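Researcher: Here's my situation. A collaborator sent me these components and asked whether they could plausibly form a single complex. I don't have experimental data yet, so a predicted model of the whole assembly would be a useful starting point for our discussion.
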Amino acid sequence: MKVDNATQQQAKQQKMTKKTQSTSLDVMKIRQDFPILHQEVHGKPLVYLDNAATTQKPQAVIDTIMRVYSHDNSNVHRGIHTLSERATALYEAARDTVKNHINARESREIIFVRGTTEAINLVATGYGQSEIQAGDEIIISEMEHHSNIVPWQMLCERTGAILRVIPINEHGEIILEEYQKLLNTKTKLVAVVHISNALGTINPVADMITLAHEHNIPVLIDGAQALPHCGVDVQALDCDFYTFSGHKTFAPSGIGVLYGKAELLEKLPPYQGGGEMISSVSFDKTTYNVIPHKFEAGTPNISGAIALATALDYLNNLGIENIAQYEKELLNYATDALLTIPGLRLIGTAKDKASILSFTLDDIHAHDVGTILDFEGIAIRSGHHCAMPIMEHFKVPATSRASLSFYNTKEEINKLVAGLHRAKEVFKR
Amino acid sequence: MSDLRELYQEVIIDHSHSPRNFHKLDHSNHEAEGFNPLCGDKLTLYLKVNDKLIEEASFQGAGCAISTASASLMTEILKGKTIAAAEELFHDFHGYLTGVCDENTIDKLGKLAILAGVKDFPTRVKCATLAWHTLHAALNNSHNTVTTEI
């Protein structure tokens, strides 16, 4: 890392940005909180636009991990010594922070898991075991991430249930009329994504939940991309399950959350067996622990959970409304800027969108675009974004995706545009 | 750090825009499909082999510039080569790009040396070798789709 150079670049950028940005967020100050942003890639300042894959971590989160392992590390819910009490208190306080952040009724409705994938698998396995029979139907949408497709396919294979898929329109929006037609007495669960990772579409999940509840069908919302961009209120949504990953919301990887309504979680059988999830064990009979512990077999990711709470505190200090407003401004700027490039096709043009821009450029393959941008220090995602059915829908093998966060700037968008012009130049006929 | 133009040489861009032998081969007696699940690159390779000699080679498919150029160059190079010589070239090419073989191997690569720049981009090595993995499968009459994820 060439710190001096990076700092100079930053100071230069700061001067330029002051004139152009109108927001209550002090983005240049925020960037100081993220040490990783201040480095060069291929001799150019890093422009990190791959936030939908994973977000960078503020110093506060990194410090929390350091602090836990330097001062408070112990197993939780086990020892009666001071460190164990301290670690347990921090771990359970983290659960309270998550509960408050998404406005759950009770902390026991917050299950710590590895991430969204594990959360969905937990529900698919448990709910499948207790509620699903041959001929039952599960509804997902065409824009799901593979993690909200494959667990349900596996459940259908096990039980003989049928997977129904809500189609999307040419803008990448769910067709609500088609969704309504799919809801019927055989439907046992609806599982849809809140914000699409490949298209940026913000789905009308509140309406979709209301419609499902009219048929008494529970709804799981995959919120992996929603937490970093907007406020989530699980009581206002009235969703039955909500899932998200820590690493996509400025916390470490390996920690995530399953929210579930207490009465539903109590009905679900345990996911994994082991320590912590039991009340008593004998060779004749084992009694399971109460929620949330019933679903947290083994030693959990203690530092991860505590650091997740730090990340959520960090977001709340900035103000999720301020973040949403700034990202909207950045999205509009980026959309206009990208559309000035001849041959650029935006994939995903929903009216209600988060700051994710998926696109194709002429007939240049996304991987070539990604490599050329990397030469310019710009990190984007190239590929199918773990959402192959969407690529099929738009008849493209892959897209390039720039996903923006509150620490990105308009100057970085300008660099992206310049990089894309460079790609066109390399591939000109 | 290598330069962008070292990776995307004119010859590579040319082959990616106008791939050679880009068609289905009538009367082929060896055929295989290659797939790179990471980026979706897909190709079908057709060979006409007679008495251990590759008489004709062609391909169809869609992929990035590196994989298309590599497949295009490969079909040009294969014509007139024995199976043993083709397998040896694959071994050297793959070994060079993955750093298993030493730098001098480049002298044995002939026209393929144009793809040497890929060596500095580990994520793109699979793009350059997809066609060659597919060749290996075709020569061994494997009917399954080969992927780069093995």
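Model: Some features of this prediction you could bring to your collaborator: Chain A touches chain B through 19 residues (CB under 8 Å). Residues 216 and 282 of chain A are 39 Å apart (CA to CA).
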